[in-house]
Design a protein that fits this description.
CATH superfamily of the largest domain: Ribosomal protein S6/Translation elongation factor EF1B
Structural class: alpha+beta
Helix content: 55-70%
Number of helices: 3
Radius of gyration: 41 Å
Strand content: 25-35%
Largest sheet: 5 strands, antiparallel
Oligomer: single chain
CATH class of the largest domain: Alpha Beta
Distance between the termini: 123 Å
Number of domains: 2
Length: 177
């Protein structure tokens, strides 16, 4: 009997030990499964948020591209206006006047015989002593200080003597060769 009891005790101990190992293993697996499920839930919530953010960013990109295309359409395709502006600022500095505003239209191309000209319209606001403003206007009409091959046709001049300012509307003709 003792040997049967001993066997029974050994079997029970082995079964209890096996059950304890299986319970520990199952508990760890269950905890890991719960952890993975929580991480999956967080990832799914994050995925929804990122999807919404992606949609928002795509909308902003579309708007930015539209704005860029609109801006590019309004931007002159020629750099001549910038180069003319540099000359205008140099002439203004030589005449001791300050350019307070400068706006230019996109250049148009005109062909006269074999020569091709670009025509850009400018509105130039200047301030300074009245005599210097007149010297600036004279310099524009004579073209003595031009660095580029261009000529100016002063179309109109509006002055405000009380503020010592003038607004000059002019066309600049540039030779394209």
């Amino acid at each position: 009997m003792r040997s049967n009891r001993a066997r029974l005790v050994v079997i029970v101990v082995v079964l209890v030990a096996a059950l304890a190992v299986l319970f520990t293993f199952y508990s760890r697996q269950a905890a890991e499964r719960n952890d993975l499920n929580e991480r999956l839930d967080r990832a799914q919530i994050l995925l929804v948020g990122l999807g919404n953010q992606k949609t928002t960013l795509e909308d902003e990109l579309t708007q930015a591209r539209s704005l860029l295309n609109t801006s590019l359409a309004n931007f002159p395709t020629s750099v001549e206006s910038i180069e003319y502006g540099e000359d205008l600022f140099e002439i203004a500095a030589d005449c001791n006047v300050d350019i307070t505003s400068l706006s230019a239209s996109p250049p148009e191309t005109t062909k006269v015989g074999a020569a091709t000209y670009s025509i850009s319209s400018f509105v130039v606001g200047v301030s300074g002593i009245s005599e210097n403003i007149l010297v600036f206007i004279q310099a524009l009409t004579t073209g003595d200080d031009f660095q580029l091959p261009w000529a100016a046709d002063v179309k109109s001049v509006s002055t405000d003597a009380s503020r010592s300012t003038a607004t000059i509307d002019l066309d600049i003709y540039g030779y394209k060769g």
